Task: inverse folding
């Protein structure tokens, strides 16, 4: 498998306009786990074709970085040409907006596979990150997440709340109550389908309200998301911090594993640690915490 394995855990993915090369340079100097160069909403219609070549140049320049491109929707006049012109060696993945059906994944996979072959890129190196941002997409989330390609290039699902709210005819709020159902459905769909946890929607209510951003990140953590899309560099560090296990969590996870392994060696089935019963789900969660801590250290 190619680049996809580098994305074992993605806490922050920073959007940057594809028609602003100087902003791409700045975004790639941040501590974001990945940078998403945007060809969709952030780029005017008149500049989309020109931006494709600029993106190829940036990918070639920063091959050691984790870079994705958000292309235009497959149904748009730009979608398929975006795939064919921006995919090049060094690109990690493609974010595809407005994915609504499982059949979309097969079409996306076929196009990417065709370009990988043409460009001499290892098959499966370019991963797919579908953006779910409509009622239909939310309802079909499990079916979408369950699709398997050969070679496997499906990373996880991501959530776009702005377009979802538009589709539903509702307003987005600081409390996020209106997003409880879609967030829960995406998290459950990814887990049930055996994918990595999903990537949460950007926080767009007020870019200056750090307290509201923190509350929104903590909501996503509680739902089981692994990270968040960011629309400003000042969102990156807080995402990286709050989506990472704390030192206390890591230390306790290590205690759990040590106690479990000792009990297992002694033939003891049920154990307690600091007054708490340790069962297999607790052990598995502890293993995940330690794995993530190692990956992000």
Result:
């Amino acid at each position: 498998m190619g680049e996809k394995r580098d994305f074992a855990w993605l806490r922050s993915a920073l959007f940057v306009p594809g028609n602003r090369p100087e902003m791409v340079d700045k975004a790639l100097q941040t501590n974001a786990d990945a940078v998403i160069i945007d060809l969709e909403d952030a780029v005017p219609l008149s500049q989309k074709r020109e931006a494709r070549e600029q993106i190829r140049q940036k990918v070639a320049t920063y091959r050691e970085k984790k870079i994705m491109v958000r292309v235009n929707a497959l149904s748009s006049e730009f979608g398929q040409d975006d795939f064919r012109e921006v995919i090049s060696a060094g690109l990690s993945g493609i974010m595809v907006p407005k994915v609504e059906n499982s059949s979309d994944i097969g079409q996306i996979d076929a196009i990417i596979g065709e370009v990988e072959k043409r460009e001499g890129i290892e098959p499966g190196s370019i991963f797919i990150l579908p953006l779910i941002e409509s009622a239909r997409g939310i309802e079909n989330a499990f079916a979408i997440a369950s699709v398997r390609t050969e070679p496997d290039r499906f990373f996880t699902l991501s959530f776009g709340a702005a377009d979802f709210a538009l589709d539903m005819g509702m307003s987005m709020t600081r409390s996020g109550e209106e997003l409880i159902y879609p967030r829960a459905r995406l998290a459950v769909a990814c887990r049930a389908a055996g994918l990595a946890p999903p990537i949460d929607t950007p926080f767009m209510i007020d870019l200056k309200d750090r307290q509201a951003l923190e509350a929104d990140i903590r909501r996503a953590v509680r739902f089981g998301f692994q990270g968040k899309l960011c629309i400003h560099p000042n969102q990156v560090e807080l995402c990286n911090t709050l989506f990472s296990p704390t030192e206390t969590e890591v230390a306790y996870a290590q205690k759990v594993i040590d106690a479990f392994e000792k009990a297992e060696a002694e033939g003891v089935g049920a154990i307690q640690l600091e007054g708490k019963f340790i069962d297999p789900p607790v052990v598995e969660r502890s293993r995940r915490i330690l794995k993530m801590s190692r990956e992000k250290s």
